[in-house]
């Protein structure tokens, strides 16, 4: 009787788990289908050419016919997104990896007691707070010491570097700590110093995990909207330098989606931008999967 009850509970648990999995799968594919259907309407319903959309440098979807007609080009958005994301990774990558090495190998006890909680605090700070600090402190500093308006790609990259630093640090630290002790002990047995072990054995062996942290950090930076919007300047033109204001895919969507009419060319163009953003996000996820599959200890 007891065994029968246990079997009934197991069956109910399996059914509940299956329902939850089904809901997640259906919700995911429904979201993908919805964004894809809305995004391609720009090309199917309004006759906009895909090449023109991806290579155009002018964003004027509200331009009147006597002015030349609507112009829909997302190059300024793509340049801004990749520039600030790449800059954030270039800054946060070395800092995060160095911090992870310190936490995992140089001073693991002190690192676990002090550094880990500090990193976790950075994760819990809302993005609007990062943006407000950047607007109040960073933008005036950039304007005073580097020139320009202060609202720039550089300011956005610096803010994003702090935001993705916990992701890079945590995943890199976990990758280093997951390595077997045999690697380290064998290197020490050969007479290597601590820094030789870290540089020549541990970091190469943990490289897939470190790259995963960098890719996920870039994906986080690529999808951030609010903090970037507050410091980047939001100018619909090609930036000339890192000190020039710019715009990203996410900031463009947040600024304009509420001001358009559903079914209009402008609204459809924004959905196409959302589709482009989704495709890049899927690309980052696929890249993480490839890096994980290519894992292994490279000594």
TrEMBL record:
GO terms for biological process: phosphate ion transport. Residues 78-288 form the ABC transmembrane type-1 domain. It holds the Pfam family BPD_transp_1. One of its GO terms (molecular function) is phosphate transmembrane transporter activity. One of its GO terms (cellular component) is plasma membrane. The keyword Transmembrane helix applies. It comes from the Bacteria. InterPro entries: MetI-like, MetI-like_sf, Phosphate_PstC, Phosphate_Transport_Permease. Keywords: Cell membrane, Membrane, Phosphate transport, Transmembrane, Transmembrane helix, Transport. It is found in: Cell membrane. The chain crosses the membrane at residues 12-35, 84-106, 118-139, 151-176, 197-219, 269-291. It is a multi-pass membrane protein. PANTHER family: ABC TRANSPORTER PERMEASE PROTEIN YQGH-RELATED, PHOSPHATE TRANSPORT SYSTEM PERMEASE PROTEIN PST. Belongs to the binding-protein-dependent transport system permease family. CysTW subfamily. NCBIfam families: phosphate_pstC. This is Phosphate transport system permease protein. It comes from Candidatus Fermentithermobacillus carboniphilus.
